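COMPLEX REQUEST
Ligand: 9MR
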Amino acid sequence: MLGVAINSDVINGTDSSSLNLVSKQFNQITAENAMKPMFIQPKEGEFHFEMADKLVEFGEKNSMFIVGHTLIWHSQTPDWFFEDEEGNEVTRDILLKRMESHISTYVGRYKGKVKGWDVVNEAVSDEGGLRKTKWYTIIGEDYIQKAFEFAYEADPDAELYYNDYSLDKAQKRNDVVALIKNLQDKGVKISAVGMQGHYDLEEPAIEEVEKSILAFSELGVKVMITELDVSALPVPENFRSAEVSVSIEMKEKLNPYTQGLPDSVQNTLAERYEDLFRLFVKHSDKITRVTFWGVNDKVSWKNNFPVRGRTDYPLLFDRENNPKKAFYEVNSIVQD
Ligand code: 9MR
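STATUS: Structure written out below.
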């Protein structure tokens, strides 16, 4: 399966060119933002399903595999989950009830329609061990297990995923292997690990991505590349995960292609995509899908991360939705 994350303009149909392209080129969709907790349940008990309904309707109409992103995450989750009316932290029991209610209402609504869920997103910290999110500090480390159990109860047939970035790094890879084993030991259903795949022209090394594909699939779960993009821009020094602020002078150096991508870099990008897809095809018995994080270069989040306001070229389609060299490269590999 080849998938893509779509933003609200695509879901609404206001970006009809992208909508059209998505229906022709992809057979799986994920909402880039619209199905995150802050949009689904901005206030306790107030569910907003309009956008998710539209996405599901579009996906079903086009026979696409629909993925729900995401149920439990530290980001884009409203504070009310964790606080009482006075703003004090709630107890474990209350937070578990809120988690259950969010998951059962949401997953229950799309039972049989949303075929796979990013149940827990980015629970492992870059420094090692579990990230100390509010979910973790209030509920305890079994919050992950609980989230998977609630999702399973709401739709036993849905695929249930753990999704994270930098999974090519040895420490995170090992932490996620331990996390999955732990869930499996407890009898929790987990179908696949999502390796997000926010890459650049140099990192990560293909061998490191391969090690992770092998390590996860050895656990008996499937692997998915869930948020693929390849930044064509210089990476700020000592940055690879957090947002950085830079001086104006520095920003010019870090934003060299405002007038268009030189052919040489276009070729390098296509080669990088070629290397990645050769790896994915080599392991097609383990990898169930590859999903791009955005339809085209114009709407990619990479234009604003890790430095705001740059002109990046991370996807297969350019700012006018025309296929780039990387598109033809990927296409020829997946068609083979
Ligand atoms: O692409 C999304 C961007 O529009 C949002 O501003 C951002 C907010 O955190 O989330 C982006 O998507 C993220 C995804 O949901 C989870 N993995 C990392 C993605 C890039 O930040």
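REMARKS: The chain has twelve helices and nine strands. The mean pLDDT is 96.
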